[in-house]
Amino acid sequence: QMFARLRQRLPAKLLFIGDGPQTADAFALAEALGVRDDVCFLGNRDNVHEILCAADVFLLPSRYEAFGLAALEAMACAVPVVALGLGGVPGRITDGETGFLVGPDEYDEGADRLFQILSDPELSARIRDNALKLVRDHFTADAVVPLYEQEYRRLLEH
Length: 158
Description:
alpha/beta, two-stranded parallel sheet, 7 helices, 12% strand, globular
């Protein structure tokens, strides 16, 4: 829905990565919305990071994200993220600073955020830089492993 609304404003391609029970519905929706020719269904891939590094924006319309790992992966590749503000995603993205959060079924707002990123290079660069800094400061192995070790030590002491 968001992509179809964006597509009315500017030419774009959507790369749909992954495969699962909702893929057929996504394919049918792209067809029904008249954007099927602009959506490439890539299926499951081993080289997701290569695809992400070539992207201008990452759209995460998932309603069920416990942690938001896919958003972090995009941010680690310096790709601005537009995601639903549900589950663990708001803990990873600060709206307007490290990405954009939109409400479920807020298709116009999501399309607006996608358009902003794609049409404003300064905004895109600022979000990209902020997101990459967040990932480097808080989600690298150097940042996370000591936290696990600390928790293991605490559990062993009890």
